[in-house]
Amino acid sequence: MTATLSSQGYDQAAFDELLAGLDEPGWMTDRRRDAFQAFCDTPWPSSKDEEWMRTDIRLFKLDQFAKPADPASSPANPGLLTQGVDLGGHVQSVDGDLVSEELSDSLAAKGVLFGGMQRMIAEHGDKLRPAIERDIVCPKYDRFAMLNAAFWTCGAVLYVPKGVAIEEPLHALSVLGAEKSADLSRTLVVLEDGAEATLLAETASASPDAAGLHCGAIELIVGAGAKLRYVNLQNWNNKVWHFAHQKAVVGKQGQLQWTIGALGAKLAKVNQHVALEGSDAEAQVNGAMFTQGRQHLTYNTHQHHEAPYCRSDLLYKTALQDKSRTVWRGMIKVDKPAQRTDAYQRNDNLMLSEHSRADSIPGLEIEADDVRCTHGSTSGKVDESQIFYAMTRGYTRKEAVRMIVSGFFQQIFDRITIESVREALGEAIGQRVQDLSNQ
Amino acid sequence: MSFHSVGSVDEFPDPSSTLVEVDDRAVALIHAAGHFYAIDDVCTHDGGPLSDGPIDAEAKTIACPRHGAKFDLKSGAALTMPATKPTVAHEVKVEDGQVLVRLSD
Ligand code: FES
């Protein structure tokens, strides 16, 4: 059932080969064909596009990457987010192939669906089709979205029926293993009305220096009165190109807590959108980014208030080392009917070196007149006197910097209600803090 | 760090500026008035692609296509606003008809 793309490139031959190896309903194949046609007819985004102005992809060459012909072996490490948690199920993929999936019997008995995207669509296509056809992430948004929609091979589906609340978190892990490997994956989460679930998703590289490509799409549908906690830890190595379109829609009185940890990638360009579609819906978005070397991470966030009485609260914190660079562009958009909106966005940056650079570009677009929309952004350097003080108390410089960095992220950690996630994120960031005196 | 070949001399007419890749870095290779220069192809003001900008062979400068900041081809110094920080200049030499670039850092 899993297809192997052995030919290099993303041309007609590669596309035909992919289709020949797939076992999926005709409507899905039609969607792929449509996206492939658009992909062929569309150029890559250029630095003249406002959205890509600060994200230089001129050195990105798609043809250098492909899904490896030889299936890689499963990761030895089950992931950072699994530690100390009783999971209700998991999905794992390596180099774009599903390697294992599991769901506890008790959850399956309640009608919960969780597993690899291809199997889910083959077995439950009719149930999932309406959600897929909503095009939460527009398959033609840009050439990366088209590439993913045409060539995706793996990913996870979580479907929770009406009123079912899942206590145990579910886990999804995507690994890149082979050199120049491509991971084109999709995630679809559907929480029907009144359902509750927690999904912990993470990405990782099996080797610290294998170049790779990830081009993904994440779609989250939170029904009326439903509650989703979604964690996404991006922990690729620093040689991976990472392009992703991620969007959640939240129904009436639905609640979403979406936490992003962005640590890896050579260059990342992520669009993270939240649309509050039903009245009285709520979204909390937390982002922790830590960059080093020559990493470049761009996150475009969008809080779209479509209905009245909704609340959205976004906080992104970034610490930068070496010559790394981050760009955060945030937009709060409030439609005319969305009266009594309460929206907030904030981005704080901590520069740990002279040569790092963080751009913060908040934006508001408000059409309703009775709203409260606020935003803020700060950028600061690490305070040498704090380091000195800690050192006079017997800490090494490295320990002192670690403490300052973890203090900086504390506000994010305080908002993360899942203890294991808090710890895993803190640990992953701590590992990346180097001794500043070397710089 | 060592010298990397970025192509043969006749691939770069005089005058021209070309984006070349050296060890995963975007470098603008400029051929002007008989000289080769190599600087980071990223404007220090706001990341504009310097190699797309006009060169002044006599003054030995290149202007960023986005907001016009000028940089010295030899040293990478920022000469005019809105750029205030220098871009990185790399070492270039020609050997056996090949243009070689060594990254400075
Ligand atoms: S980006 Fe080069 S002058 Fe502004």
Automatic annotation (TrEMBL), chain A:
Gene Ontology BP terms: iron-sulfur cluster assembly
Matches recorded under Pfam families: SUFBD_core, SufBD_N
Origin: domain of life: Bacteria
Domain spans labelled SUF system FeS cluster assembly SufBD N-terminal: 27-170
Matches recorded under InterPro entries: Fe-S_cluster_assembly_SufBD (IPR055346), SUF_FeS_clus_asmbl_SufBD_core (IPR000825), SUF_FeS_clus_asmbl_SufBD_sf (IPR037284), SUF_FeS_clus_asmbl_SufD (IPR011542), SufBD_N (IPR045595)
Domain SUF system FeS cluster assembly SufBD core: start-end pairs: 178-408
Sequence similarity: Belongs to the iron-sulfur cluster assembly SufBD family.
PANTHER family from the UniProt entry: PROTEIN ABCI7, CHLOROPLASTIC
Name of this protein: FeS cluster assembly protein SufB
The species this protein was found in: Posidoniimonas corsicana
From TrEMBL, chain B:
A GO molecular-function annotation: 2 iron, 2 sulfur cluster binding
Key words, A-Z: 2Fe-2S, Dioxygenase, Iron, Iron-sulfur, Metal-binding, Oxidoreductase
InterPro entries, per the entry: Rieske_2Fe-2S, Rieske_2Fe-2S_sf
Domain Rieske intervals: 3-101
Entry superkingdom: Bacteria
Name of this chain's protein: Naphthalene 1,2-dioxygenase/salicylate 5-hydroxylase systems, ferredoxin component
Organism: Posidoniimonas corsicana
Taxonomy of the source species: Bacteria, Pseudomonadati, Planctomycetota, Planctomycetia, Pirellulales
